[in-house]
Amino acid sequence: MGKGANHMVLEGQTVKIGEKFDLGDGVKADTPGKSGVAGHDINCRCFVTHDWLTAEEYAAAVKKQGDKTVDKSAESGIIKNIDVDDLELAVYGKDVDEKAVKIIKKYFVDNSLADGYYINNISMKSIQNDNEKEKGRPLIQTIANKRGNMYETDIVLNEDIFKGRSIDSLNEMLKNYKNNIAQTFEEAVIHEVGHAKTIFSNRFRDIEAMYDKLEKMGVEGISAIALNDGAEAVAEIEILIHRGSVIPKQAKELYDKVMSGKLET
Ligand SMILES: [Zn+2]
User: Fold this and answer.
1) Ligand 1 centre and the CA of 42: distance in Å?
2) Is the pTM of this model over 0.70?
3) Residues spanned by the domain of 132
4) Is 83 within a domain?
């Protein structure tokens, strides 16, 4: 029930604005909806607080969106967060542990508006890893897709890993992975929230240039991925904030600059 209408919503959000292309990291723009320009494909096996729009502003924006096409809404900067139907559609028939879905829902659907970020699209597909620098397969990818004059945030869940795997197994897998600090599936999702916030808070800027800069701005004392890439450092810091841990000064400064769109120095 509602699947048809739902599907139309997805279709509506994913108006084709360019040619089908490869996002890299094995993610192909293979549906009408996934053919936006990839600003950056954050490929970690990865597995908080800001105010940009008030709830009222957001509600007004969504209401205003009304019968406009998605293309128009993107041009005018009006965006829509995914809803629970979008998530259910993404995992429909894929044998994903309900507990994992619940956690995904909490951060990518329920918390997003209140915490000041948006997830515009969510999907589940097989993701192979052909990035030589990276080892292993990504669990979740957070992707900045250019739409009109802004970037939207897309979440891609790796079907190869989720399918048939219990939450305990996901937790165990993450616990044994040494390059990042996520110890649980929930923390892996929080890491992705860090990426999503980065995209949202810089959605009208030149995100590709920002990531180029961040690549040379690793942070010491957090994790291997944070050391190699400032974007990953920011995502790792999201976990530290959630834990209430002490955050190294250099890390906090980088986080604040990125989240306030002031990464100019
Ligand atoms: Zn990451």
Assistant:
1) 6
2) yes
3) 3-259
4) yes
